[in-house]
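note to self: dont lose this again. the chain is below, predicted strucutre after it. 89 aa total, dont forget to put it in the shared folder this time
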Amino acid sequence: MSFKRRQLKMFRTISVMVLIALTIFACGSSGINSQVNDGKITICHATGNATAPYTETTLDFNELNGHSDHQDDLIPAPVSGCPVSSYNG
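---
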């Protein structure tokens, strides 16, 4: 992997982590905080399937690196749960 690609991947990962931190900070003690426990976070992983567009997945923070380039994933998962229709991928 070239240096430029490694930098881009690192930037994406850092961006996801900053977004998570800002979301948690902005929501204070709301439902988002209940999704981020003991170094774990719940996300909605995009499946590409219109009838089942997302799977709810709980990951360790270090596992988020594998999802940093999945542009349709919802990180963190909405408090109401993952969408069950209207996939726009």
